[in-house]
Specification:
alpha+beta; elongated; 4 helices; 22% strand; disordered N terminus
Length: 167
């Protein structure tokens, strides 16, 4: 849904809750009217994080941070099966950029040398090669299956995804 296709109609209810020693939490919702006339309700939570506190934001959750004081932010962007398709799209896009950037040496290399060179530069630029990504997906798929973790991907989905990756 394009944010430009929505306009705010009115703010819904909200409530304040005190949690722990310093955390103030506000929950609420906003009703939005889409251009097609249908309604959409967006729920939100505002958390005031106190000194020394940490917050975990799960993969795929939209969030925004506003620092109200001098702050040191330490974050880790998790990579898991939930975001593997987006990671794969990004890897392919970045490989295209690498190929464009070093295309002047293309005719100096055999096909295998060209592919290896592109993967080496891809890994230097973003920290992953296609082979490392494949290993990441295989490892995470086997861990989730072994631990019986909830995932919205079935084992058939994962196998289909893996079969689409280059070897």
């Amino acid at each position: 849904m394009d944010s430009n296709s929505l306009k705010e109609e009115k703010e819904g209810s909200s409530s304040l809750k005190k949690e722990g020693s310093s955390r103030l939490k506000k929950e609420g919702s906003i009703r939005l009217k889409k251009e097609d006339g249908s309604d959409s309700v967006i729920r939100y939570t505002i958390v005031h994080q106190g000194s020394g506190e940490g917050i975990f934001v799960p993969s795929g959750w939209w969030h925004q941070v506003l620092n109200t004081r001098h702050t040191i932010s330490i974050n880790h962007n998790w990579a898991n099966l939930h975001c593997a398709p987006a990671m794969w799209d990004y890897l392919q896009s970045e490989l295209g950029e690498v190929e464009r950037e070093i295309r002047d040496i293309r005719e100096l290399c055999s096909e295998g040398e060209w592919e290896n060179q592109c993967q080496m530069v891809l890994r230097a630029n973003i920290g992953w090669s296609f082979q490392e990504f494949r290993e990441f997906v295989e490892c995470n798929a086997s861990r989730e299956a072994a631990a019986d973790h909830f995932t919205h991907y079935s084992s058939d989905d994962v196998q289909m995804f893996l079969s689409s990756l280059p070897t």
